[in-house]
Design brief:
The structure is a homodimer of 345-residue chains. Chain A has 13 helices and 12 strands. Chain A has 345 residues and is of the alpha/beta class. Chain A binds a DNA duplex (30 and 30 nucleotides) through helix 2 and helix 4.
Chain lengths: 345, 345
DNA sequence: TACTTTTATGAAAACGTTTTCATAAATTCG
DNA sequence: CGAATTTATGAAAACGTTTTCATAAAAGTA
């Protein structure tokens, strides 16, 4: 009965196969499947039943081509395995799935060339929207222009373009994060406070530094602190910076490290060199990577609430997809941060 | 000149637009773009130049529909943010991108229902192949049947179906991992060795337990050890297990915990309860999560070489995609593990 | 009853590619 | 030089949907 309509099992069956098996037109089958427009109740049931029997699944590509909608969102980020990003991706993917969207992920590995390549690929794949956290060095954002010119929603997060590049942005309150760190160290009584920062080409490190300096200036009345280092976030560089810091006569008694991984490196360096934390050196990290909670001493750090971040991302994205495009200026959404006090400071 | 051919900027231009602008047929343009078949050198140059000028990008959906190839791979895993998986995904995505494939990711959150849903979605999206690491509880693998019946390569890794479900599989050498852990604890002189394992419904925990027991049996001559616990990998459950273990009179002096996160929990419990590691309790974890290297004492663990894992995944997948499907039985690929000795044991 | 509206379905076009089938021009070969 | 081959291009069909435009039947309304 049914078998006579079933094609070679390796073939996909289509809406035409369903139509043939039911003596209906493909149009009606499509309508039944998507319950758009009028379809007799009985017909719809017959279609659904047959679809089940033949194991029919819609070819999303064909539908996408026709509808000009892929139900796919592209996500470009530096590296999935970084704690903050892994958490964000986790919730973003879950929420998008619930809303019927696929997520395609591309890692720039902090290489602007790769980032551009991914933008092109995703555009070519006709993603319905795109989410981007930039490279540490991205200065030319024009590879993303195609999206705006083609009215494809683009949403930057965390590492974002400057205000001058008009785009929707969600970012953590890095200035406040830096400020909280500085304030905490000052209030703990530190006199010589240093900082090991990431590259200032990236907005997040720039803002963390600005907030931090503002705190020192406001609360200690100091101008430009001396013990500043910026680097590419490698453990080796952190050690270099520490060596320099502790060589001089004005050793730091407080240190703000803008990445938890590097804060852990500081911890190890301190242990190796007999520097007591927090007695001799108070330490504040950034991100609330779970590792900071289990090392000893545990590390005081700034939580960025990545899950909340992810939720806001998806909510904003959906709003962008659903509402008609507007040229209105949309101020950056700032998500909160807070200081998690632990043993290191 | 050119502008007259440019459409409204929000429109995508197509191969037809190129053809019109150049007074060529779409066929020739396509041939020039993909350099298939004969195209005069000069023509090809003209096409490429115009493509650049008009900012043409191929619509991958249309191409995919026509070619029955999406250049997209689906990946289903429990949760991206787990260390092992994050590392695997990182290298898999990078390698796939280099080979011209997009990666779409779906998280089952260890829910078999969600896993099934994702399989359906990815099938519907016509992925060229699919990579799966199962739920801890997946027992019914039939949701994946569609792929095999439609000749779509499917490759399981890490958490895989049993031998009886014929499918290509890449897994870590969990038996050996368990064996190495057991051997190490025995050789360290432990007499009462316990184990906290994940759910035995999953092949990985079953194999780790089997290897571990084999080691104790072979090297200690003991039959079924007493101090066995299995649980769902939650910190709370680990604490419960520990409470029970240390309540009895035969307290363990060695412990194999088949997940590093839980090994860290053991560390904390030990600290809270004044149990000295490694003096009173030797501890071995599993996965070589970076956290094990930075806690103190650092944790001896089993490395699974996730990067190597990812490389093998992609290599095998490419082979499956490129070579004609075969019914030949393909034995599971086993990737190596090794014991990383640290302070805890 | 005769008209309008609602319900139900089908034919055909469209989405943007690629490829098969033609055909013509250019080149090679005997 | 004429025939065979290679090079170069175009027309049209195809991939699997969805949707517009018809049209017909059923239901509602005056």
């Amino acid at each position: 009965m049914i078998q006579q309509f079933m094609k070679d099992s390796q073939q996909h069956n289509t809406i035409l196969d369903l139509a043939a098996a039911l003596n209906l037109s493909p149009a009606t089958v499509s309508r039944a499947l998507n319950n758009t427009s009028y379809v007799k109740k009985e017909t719809k049931e017959r279609v659904l039943e047959m679809a089940l029997k033949l194991g029919y699944r819609k070819n999303k590509m064909a539908a996408g081509l026709r509808n000009n909608k892929t139900n796919t969102i592209g996500l470009i980020l530096p590296k999935i395995s970084m704690y903050f990003h892994a958490e964000v991706v986790t919730v973003v993917q879950n929420l998008l799935h619930a809303k019927g969207y696929n997520l395609i992920i591309g890692q720039s590995n902090d290489d602007p060339g790769m980032e551009k390549e991914l933008a092109e690929t995703f555009f070519s794949s006709r993603v319905d929207a795109i989410i981007v956290s930039c490279t540490l060095e991205t200065e030319d954002f024009s590879p993303f222009d195609i999206f705006s010119t083609h009215q494809i929603p683009i949403l930057f997060y965390d590492r974002v373009p400057p205000e001058t590049y008009r785009a929707r942005v969600i970012k953590g309150d890095d200035f406040n994060g830096g400020f909280l760190a500085g304030k905490h160290l000052v209030e703990a009584g530190c006199k010589h406070i240093g900082m090991i920062n990431g590259p200032m080409t990236s907005n997040i490190y720039e803002a963390r530094a600005a907030g931090f300096i503002a705190a020192l200036r406001m609360l200690q009345g100091k101008e430009e602190p001396k013990l500043f280092f910026q680097q590419q976030l490698q453990a080796e560089e952190t050690r270099e910076a520490l060596k320099k810091m502790f060589k001089g006569k004005s050793k730091p008694d407080g240190l703000f490290v803008t990445s938890d991984r590097n804060a852990v490196t500081v911890l190890q360096y301190a242990k190796e060199n007999g520097i007591k934390i927090p007695q001799e050196l108070r330490l504040v990290g950034y991100s609330n990577d779970p590792v900071t909670a289990v090392v000893s001493p545990s590390i005081t750090t700034i939580d960025q609430y990545p899950a909340l971040f992810g939720e806001k991302l998806v909510a904003t994205l959906m709003e962008m997809i659903e509402s008609p495009p507007t040229d209105e200026y949309q101020p950056a959404v700032i998500t909160p941060v807070s200081l998690i006090e632990r043993e290191s400071a």
